[in-house]
Predict the structure.
Amino acid sequence: MEKMETKRAKKFNTVSFLVLCIAVPVIVIGGAWIFKDRQYAWITLCVAVLACVPFFLLFEKKEADGRVLVTVAVMCALSVAGRVLFAPVPGFKPVTAMVIITAMYFGSEAGFVTGAFSALVSNFYFGQGPWTPFQMFVWGLIGFVSGLCGSWLKKNRVFLTVFGIISGVVFSLVMDIWTVLWADGIFNVTRYAAAVISSVQFIIIYAVSNVVFLFFPGKQIGRMLERIKTKYMG
């Protein structure tokens, strides 16, 4: 029985990895390259559906229930509300922090869903466009990796700080890939370098904001999530 459960867990982890780390980026990058800005709505829909697949498979494993779904929805709402609230301050956003915190306590799949849907929902306010699938992917990917590193992130404040900074840098670097693909239709190294250099100020502000939100509201939110997980998930 135990061997069967281990085998199922490995199979589930493989499915999650294939869907979130291979299928999603192939669709996002391939779609941007082939369709440019013409079919971004379909690409966004595909990413949204794929983001949900591993998360809902958790229910089949009986590792999640309706409370987890509600908690993830609340974290998405907090993420979206925070992005809108801090809209007047360029680059200073709580989205990445909320995604990391969700993944730390509820796993990679929940982190990916929170990241992807935070981008999708908040862009109904900021504006949907061909950039949306890229935002969904990179915030989702940060959530996925955060879940894998969850135990270390909870125990080591230095590691959490460094991870928050790196996440901010990664988000900016991936979004600059979209900028180049949108402008040239292909990946142009020279233009990419120029885009990165021109966004250094944004990268620094965003990286710092991740640390700020991880340790101030994030600390209290983390305690709340820990209580929910302990009470309802054992």
The two ends are 21 Å apart (CA to CA).
